[in-house]
Design brief:
alpha+beta, Nucleoside Triphosphate Pyrophosphohydrolase, five-stranded mixed sheet
Length: about 170
């Protein structure tokens, strides 16, 4: 079996605004950031667009159906974990509207799903930059840099300009 982290791995994430000014987070079970509260996301499958992957991962991990979203940044992460070095290229999308996690939903490959205000859960260092770029937080560069360095992560960002909207049907929605 090949370790999927032994190569550059393309991934997508979805920032899901929730009710009452909350953001949707998942407790990751696998990968280099396991046991952390993260934004929903995961690997892009062969032949799948980055937007479709973000929509699919959001649905699998949170039960939220995203009808429309906008890309806001592309990130490159490198670091080290128990399995060795990793290199991720991540496409960030912001869901339009407010999304509520269905009551009792159990996400795929996540330990828990929470919709909370920023500051109510310990954020992973990468989320500081992502939430700032999505316009939902205002962390400053020195704070972000210190948090990333403490986690041994190198993160580069390319912000998307303009207003591109992506509408992606879920598999089986025809």
């Amino acid at each position: 079996m090949t370790n999927r982290f032994s190569r550059i791995l393309p991934v997508s994430l979805m920032v899901l605004p929730g009710p009452g000014g909350t953001i949707t987070f998942v407790r990751q079970l696998k990968g280099p950031y396991a046991d952390n509260w993260l934004l929903p996301g995961g690997g892009i499958e062969p032949g799948e667009s980055a937007g479709a992957a973000a929509v699919r991962e959001a649905y699998e991990e949170t039960g939220c159906r995203v009808d429309s979203c906008s890309p806001f940044a592309v990130y490159e992460f490198t670091g080290q974990w128990a399995e060795g070095r990793y290199h991720l290229v991540m496409f960030g999308f912001l869901a339009h509207g407010t999304h509520r996690v269905p009551d009792g939903f159990q996400g795929h490959n996540v330990g828990a799903v929470r919709q909370v205000r920023i500051g109510e859960l310990p954020l992973h260092s990468t989320d500081l930059q992502i939430l700032t770029d999505a316009g939902l937080a205002s962390y400053r560069e020195p704070e972000i840099s210190r948090a990333l360095a403490a986690d041994g992560i190198t993160m580069h960002a390319l912000r998307v300009s303009g207003s591109v909207t992506t509408s992606v049907p879920l598999p089986g929605d025809g």
